[in-house]
Amino acid sequence: MFSSDLEKRELAFELYDGFKDSDLSYVYHGHFSQKITDLIIMMAETTMNQAGESARIKKRVFSIMVESLQNITRHQDVVDEHQGLFAIEQKDGNYFVTTVNHIFNSNIEHVDGLLKKIQSLQAEDLKLYYKEVLTENEISEKGGAGLGLIEIAKKSNNKISYHFHKIDDVCSYFYFHTCITPREEDDSDDTELVRIDNIFFLHQLLKQKEVQLIYNGIFNQENLINLLNIIENQMEGMGHIKRIVFNMMVEMIQNIVKHALRNDERKGNPGIFFINKKNGMHVLNTGNYILKKNIDEVKSKIDYVNSLNHKELDDYYNKCLFDFQIDSPKESGLGFIELKMKSSDKIRYTFQDIDDKKSFFILQIYIE
Amino acid sequence: MTPLIYDGTEDTPKVVLDRDAEEFLISGRSLPEDAFLFYKPIFRWLEEHAKNPKKKTIFRFELEYFNTSSAKQLSKIFIFLKNIKEEVEVIWCYQVDDIDMLNSGKRFEKFTNLNFKMEVLPVIEDDDFRIITE
């Protein structure tokens, strides 16, 4: 038996599995401030640069991201308990941008009509319609005139889909999904590219498990810094907790950067990181591949620090701190000790079988 | 001796090692991917400095955050400071609400027996963190 007392099917694995065909997925669920939207865009920029994307596709992804994020920030304050969601996914060279925000039921008819109209138009007509709406200047209360939606449709060659899901008599969730293909003049009808039900399922899962942030993809130092910036913003005003979360994130993600198994040619190690809440505690989760032959070593390290009481842990930290036998670019021997010292519970872990050679290593830290 | 000066970045601290100005400082955040590599030139510099130290070396640590691999390298810095034959004083700074940082200083003090002075830094406004904007 590998795990401590975890649920049967791990959320980390569930999420990783759900994203497994994508090269990158980044999901933010929570309140969107201006700073956070800036950071999300910066993060996408870093990842697209690392992937060596062309300037052309970057530009299209950016403008769609900006419009989508504005859509969320404009509409989120109405009912704050229904948090918005932003997701970007990359798969086989295609980008998928999805937003979820709430909408008053009384506005659905208008938005639905607008989107139906947009979807019925060909590229040229879409441009004309854009100009038409622009000159009519029929600005809605919230400052939008549907121009954002038309712009997204233009940039994505109309590869959009949407869905309304009723919350109560007043509000609904508005799911909006876009696909950006590398081919500029692509009018093909790749409806299978648009998978709104997948996002719908994900959104339900994130709400239920109180997941705030997911990053799934390649891990390196640059991505770590971007994630840290986002978390610092998201947890603004949370002082002590923020400091610990920051601390633990660095150790956990650098663990992936330095030790995870790389199973392809990309620049970094694949894995998943997410934060959720459980019983009022923050839970930091990582998942990454590990060679089966290394499992015992990792397991015994964690079990050992888990077995120590406060005083023993402190002594062990001191011993390792000044033990220069373990001192290399990869290893300081302090990571798990620090994780245990700062967490409010035992370090939880599990190894999910993948194949003969490798397993998926899930690590969980609880912070009160 | 040529001073060793690094500007701070998002993940590496500001470093000033300057004998003429009598300034010895490490400040900011230290979470490089490879702390071992980052701190190497600092050890080399300190080794040289120890050969012919000034009457007094006052080394100031004004760290906001460091990861475990940096902790290991910091402990090495203290070993190098121990080797200085003249007087050494360590000023360990921490923000008033950052007990962990204070405890780290106490830990290093206890295990190196160097002369430590703990200094409280004024609290930085919570929303006053650094973001790189282009």
So, CATH architecture of chain B?
Answer: 2-Layer Sandwich
- What is the mean pLDDT of chain B? 90
For the CA atoms, what is the radius of gyration of chain B?
A: 15 Å
- The chain-level structural class of chain A is alpha+beta
Fraction of residues in helix of chain B: 25-40%
The largest sheet of chain B is:
6 strands, mixed
Per DSSP, what share of the residues of chain B sits in E-state strands of 2 or more residues? 25-35%
Number of strands of chain A: 10
Which segments of chain B are poorly predicted (pLDDT under 50) over 5 or more consecutive residues?
127-134
Oligomeric state of the chains?
heterodimer
Task: Give the tally of structural domains of chain B.
Answer: 1
Descriptors for this entry?
heterodimer; A: 368 residues; Heat Shock Protein 90; 46% helix; 24% strand; disordered N terminus; B: 134 residues; alpha/beta; Transcription Regulator spoIIAA; six-stranded mixed β-sheet; 34% helix; globular; disordered C terminus
Topology:
The complex is a heterodimer of chains A (368) and B (134).
Chain A: H1 11-18, E1 24-30, H2 34-50, H3 55-75, E2 84-91, E3 94-104, H4 105-120, H5 123-136, H6 147-155, E4 160-166, E5 171-180, H7 196-209, E6 211-219, H8 221-234, H9 239-259, E7 269-278, E8 281-291, H10 292-307, H11 310-321, H12 335-342, E9 348-353, E10 358-367
Antiparallel strand pairs in A: 1-2, 1-6, 2-3, 3-5, 4-5, 6-7, 7-8, 8-10, 9-10
Helix pairs in contact in A: 2-3, 2-8, 3-6, 5-6, 8-9, 9-12, 11-12
Chain B: E1 4-6, E2 14-18, E3 23-30, H1 35-51, E4 56-66, H2 68-82, E5 87-95, H3 99-112, E6 115-121
Helix pairs in contact in B: 1-2
Structure description:
The complex is a heterodimer of chains A (368) and B (134). Chain A is of the alpha+beta class and 368 residues long. Chain A has twelve helices and ten strands. Chain A folds into two domains: 1-23 and 240-261 and 278-368, no CATH class; 31-209, Heat Shock Protein 90 (2-Layer Sandwich), CATH 3.30.565. In chain A, a hairpin with a 4-residue loop joins strand 4 (160-166) and strand 5. In chain A, helix 9 (239-259) runs antiparallel to helix 12. Residues 1-6 of chain A have low confidence and may be disordered. Chain B has 134 residues and is of the alpha/beta class. Chain B has one domain: Transcription Regulator spoIIAA (2-Layer Sandwich), CATH 3.30.750. Chain B is 34% helix and 32% strand. The chains are: A alpha+beta (368), B alpha/beta (134).
